[in-house]
Amino acid sequence: MHLHFLLLSLSYKKIYIIPIFPSKKNNNNYVSIPIMAREEHLLSTDIVNRGISDEGSQTFSVRVRRRLPDFLQSVNLKYVKLGYHYLIKHGIYLAILPVLVLVFSAEVGSLSREELWRKVWDSTTRYDLATVLSFVALFVFTISLYIMSKPRPIYLLDFACYKPSDDLKVTKEQFIELARNSGKFDESSLEFQKRILESSGIGDETYVPKSIGSSENTATMKEGRFEASTVMFGALDELFEKTKIRPKDVGVLVVNCSIFNPTPSLSAMIINHYKMRGNILSFNLGGMGCSAGIIALDLARDMLQANPNNYAVVVSGEMVGYNWYPGKERSMLIPNCFFRMGCSALLLSNRRRDYHRAKYSLEHIVRTHKASNDRAFRCIYQEEDSQRYKGLKISKDLVEVGGDALKTNITTLGPLVLPFSEQLFFFGNLVWRHLFGNKNAKTNNNNNNNSPQANDIKPYIPDYKLAFEHFCVYAASKTVLDELQRNLELSEENMEASRATLHRFGNTSSSSIWYELAYLEAKEKIRRGDRVWQIAFGSGFKCNSAVWKAIRRVKKPSTNPWLGCVDRYPESLTQ
To answer: Which residues form a coiled coil (predicted)?
Structure first.
């Protein structure tokens, strides 16, 4: 009897080896695993380690990976209703306007020019001057009230992404050597991190702080403040240089950093460094994960809506050294492998006169929060291990929880951005499946137990490529990007910015989506009228989307983190 093995690779690449013996009931040497049968749609398989045993028989291993659930196959109707509520709320004026135009055209079109002028003159002579002036005043007041009640447009004047110095650049081999030289990891932990890096999609030019190679504790306030000042001031110096805006002109400041939250805060550190004005509205968001950049953007937008004629600066980053985990728990070693140095800073304005100098206007923000669910709340959880080392623990439920949050977010966003034809097909298919799908499934179950979904109604998957020209998907890992591409049916070109960012800069947490937009600008892909979809997700569990519309064609910037290396992409991704 030959002994074979099945490798089960869960969401964080932990490998389980299960012995499989040939079945005595048949000659196919297969084994039935009930748990996997129930989750077959959540798993993907690869054949690895082919070879020949000492007895001459062929051997191989099957790697089973848990993937994102096909969240477009099971859309919850209440989230579609929420999205359509937003659409109807803002689209009622568009529905009434064509009716008024048709009625007015029918009335005026039946009259000749002479009859029209005669009718206008006869109508106006009936009223005295006071009545006419009152009507004009009421009309002007109504128009003014409507204009004042409309939300102020929010413009993105420019943004900057910090590019660390070359002495902080490491290859994957150098990263492992730094970890080994620190003396904090045994060979088993080093080998695990090496395997993670090999399949991560991260290249050989990412940046890490020098402190991770030290044998001393890196999670100190001194190291955290040093790294924070390096990345934040680097991004802000470039932003103020590009926009020619003085720091004292900024009225709103929002800073987000999930792990490192000192006292005084990071926002206070920035105000102190740039000597900003005393009445600035400053906010410091902590513990909100890798999607906090869009949360900070949402807060800045609300502040600008309430405070006219103002500028807002949003700073997003994470401190790698402060979050460095020196223990042996494998689920807590994963952040070490993916997170890299980076920071973004963007300048927003609500001044209408800034329209011509702005790059983008903010169209939509959709936020999804799943913390009411215990599994979602604990899937990314900061805690101490058995040795009292602090780190982020990644749960095996992460992929499933993330898929559910993504499903909710894009379902709510869809009615706001998709063309009407896509909305009509999608909504009609959804209602049809909601009303008759279960009935068909029960019928199929009674007729054919082996294929219960043989004739079930297939869901209509909206084509988000019709709504957006560019996609900035949070570059968490290669596996996550692969599954998002498959579920949303995106092309390689749609995913190019995300994959390039992951390869060149690694996972820079909440600032990743801005490195991706910088890549699109460096490639000169942004044209006037293009819409950009930024989507990010993180602990909580949260999934957030932001939609931008390009006001003008964006030429290749003179300062950009991709200058000098952008021409190597996307070819280098296939190496």
So the answer is: 474-501
